[in-house]
Design a protein that fits this description.
By secondary structure, this protein is α/β, with parallel strands linked by helices. Helices cover 32% and strands 21% of the residues. The strands form four sheets. Strands 5-6-7-4-8-9-3-10 form an eight-stranded mixed β-sheet, sandwiched between helices. It has a six-stranded mixed β-sheet with strand order 11-16-14-13-12-15.
Length: 431
């Protein structure tokens, strides 16, 4: 451990950073972005950087989307500053997770934040955004950047390449916003930006057995993303819905009662799922307006009751879902007043092709608060072969329940069965 003497009596205890942590801790760049593997020490490194900045009199704000992440950072900070806190030099607030020098602007704080709204109300001259790949872009654009203006502050973005194994659910409109920012930083020629990359194994303090334990069930692709911390371009080459236009992710608005409702269902005791789509009869556009992932523990009757509440006073035209072998389950839903038909196409690839056809004409719009649905779409990929080429098999297929729901119902429709607009519509529905 490093020790920094305070008044020759009190000691601030910082962990000894490993070589890759030292690189970004000591970097003078105003804007830093760190792409690192799981358990590589990125949060501990951020804590070391934050404490050093705090001791230099700066106002530090650390934000992450989960309490687990902020808890790890807070543990490191309070551990480092334990002696001066105990001596009354610094004031610690365990409820709000901040430490400050009373009577000054000197402060270090840990906060849970997903987007601009959850970050508002604070300011800093060093901003640390951890698990950046899971945050909404407006966290930085609307709040983070402006809070640094007064003191010409610094920011550090920290992320692990997004995949299905990512903890939490991304709130980003563009699931690749973190890799894109990393590429921007790599291409910067002004020294204002600096990009750092290190894998899990480069943390000398990590147990090799522990690393083996968390990777033994991973696919090669997930291993490259989460452990090697690679922004794997091949992952997106195999992306199934890569033709989906991100402009079709729109803010929520009230669904008009006269619109037609279609629902897709995926059965299963542990992971039942459903998707609800509204179709504007005037344009033929579909709007994904509700996702349903309740988890285990509900009966068929309870599911049906929830479905009826979601579609109250709406006109449900069709419900489809399940495989050919799940007719008995469909009959169970019918008996409770929610008849579900077998999907029109049994072949998975045919169904996917039908959905892709809708995307090519921008026929599906998605409300931007359907986080699980958007996250699945961003990771729904074909398996890659040893040469990195897509196969006809879906990677981790059993995990994409909402994508199955989408395919079951939207595969009924093709560009020939919906109205094709004569010109591109920028805003499909005005309210």
């Amino acid at each position: 451990m490093n020790s920094v003497a305070m008044n020759k009596e009190l000691t601030v205890r910082l962990r000894q950073p490993h070589a890759r942590q030292v690189e970004f801790i000591d970097s003078p760049a105003k804007r830093k972005i760190i792409r690192a593997g799981r358990r590589s020490g990125k949060t501990v490194g951020a804590a070391i950087l934050g404490v050093k900045a705090f001791l230099a009199g700066r106002r530090v704000l650390y934000a992450a989307p989960t309490a687990e992440q902020t808890g790890r950072f807070w543990y490191e900070v309070t551990r480092s500053l334990a002696e001066p806190i105990k001596a009354g030099i610094y004031h610690k607030d365990e409820t709000e997770h901040f430490i400050e020098l009373p009577g000054t602007e000197q402060r270090i704080k840990a906060k849970t934040a997903w987007n601009a709204n959850t970050l508002r109300g604070d300011y800093a001259d060093l901003l640390l955004l951890d698990e950046w790949q899971l945050m909404a872009e407006d966290t930085w654009e609307e709040v983070g950047a402006p809070m640094l203006l007064d003191n010409n502050g610094d920011v550090v973005f920290i992320y692990t390449p997004p995949s299905l194994h990512s903890s939490g659910v991304s709130k980003a409109r563009d699931p690749l916003h973190a890799p894109k920012l990393f590429k921007k930083a790599e291409g910067d020629k002004t020294d204002r930006w600096a990009a750092f990359h290190f894998a899990s194994r480069e943390n000398p303090h990590i147990s090799k057995d522990a690393l083996l334990d968390i990777t033994q069930d991973m696919s090669q692709l997930s291993y490259r993303q989460e452990i090697l911390a690679e922004d794997v371009d091949e992952a997106w080459k195999g992306l199934i819905y890569r033709r989906f236009n991100q402009a079709c992710i729109i803010p929520r608005f009230p669904i008009p009662k006269e619109w037609l409702i279609f629902t897709g269902h995926d059965f299963g005791g542990a992971n039942p799922a459903a998707m609800f789509y509204a179709q504007d009869p005037g344009t033929g556009y579909f709007y994904a307006f509700r996702e349903y992932l309740p988890g285990a523990g509900r009966s068929t009757a309870q599911h049906v009751e929830e479905f009826k509440q979601i579609t109250d006073k709406m006109t449900v035209i069709k419900r489809a879902g399940g495989s050919h072998q799940e007719e008995e389950i469909r009959q169970g839903y019918t008996a409770h007043g929610w008849p579900i038909q077998e999907p029109k196409f049994r072949d998975v690839k045919v169904g996917i092709d039908r959905v892709c056809a809708l995307h090519e004409l921008n026929k599906e719009y998605i409300f931007d608060d359907l986080y699980d649905y958007l996250f699945e779409q961003a990771n729904y990929s074909w398996k890659l072969d040893e040469q990195g080429q897509p196969t006809n098999d879906i990677q981790d297929k059993a995990k994409f329940h909402l994508m199955d729901c989408r395919r079951y119902i939207l595969s009924d429709f093709t560009p020939e069965t919906v109205m094709v607009p004569k010109s591109r519509v920028v805003r499909p529905y005005r309210f």
